[in-house]
Amino acid sequence: MSKYFMNDSELQELEQLMMLVPNFSPRGRGIIVVHGFGKADEQEREEEVRPTLPEQFRFDSDIGCLNSNGRGASYDRFISSCFHVCKSYRLQSRLEYLIRNCAGDFFISQIHRARFDSVCRLQEILVENRSPILLAVLFLLTADDKLWSAAKDHVYDNHLDFKKMNLSGINTDGYAIYQMAKTIYTAREYIRMDEIADKFLIGDQAFKAIIHSILIAKYGATALQVKFT
Q1: What is the mean pLDDT of residues 181-205?
Q2: Which of 6, 51, 151, 223 is the most exposed place for a label (fewest CB within 10 A)?
Q3: Number of H-type helices and E-type strands within the chain
Q4: Exposed/middle/buried for residue 172 (C-beta within 10 Å: 0-12, 13-18, 19+)
């Protein structure tokens, strides 16, 4: 008899995450935690994680409404402060819909939150100390079940190996999330803003994950502290 009660259900992975021993990954799979590189390797990894977003995602945000822990702004003000300079009608329309219908959680599901928290715990790095770029990419890769299955063995403490992620069987939303993760990580345009704004191309949950990842890339862990009303 299986030790898991939730086999073959949408809660199966959440149950497995909850049964992990703190600070240890499952034998033969899961997160590969790498502690330390040579100087040349460290320099190469630092160069891979670029400090800025691609031009189309680089908005002149007014973060004066935020205090040091991010609780000075409500969710709608946080979104508006980041995207107010973007003049795309379709994007603004989707953002308004997102603000109206957000259920009060920055993550797209319980499983997403549990998976993200578990990875951060296994890597033994405080969320507040992580690079905003890596934090945003990790947020995206843990958002989709099949994408995470393809990515989890290629996620390290301070870099990711996108070339080894096998995306066979992934759906359109998962692929869009993957492309956004690559866009943030490399500062190269793998997905366009007009594609993100297209509700017929990208579903609401994937859109939410992408928008929130941009907030994380810009504001770091502060974005995770945003206040919902």
Answers
A1: 94
A2: 51
A3: 10, 0
A4: exposed
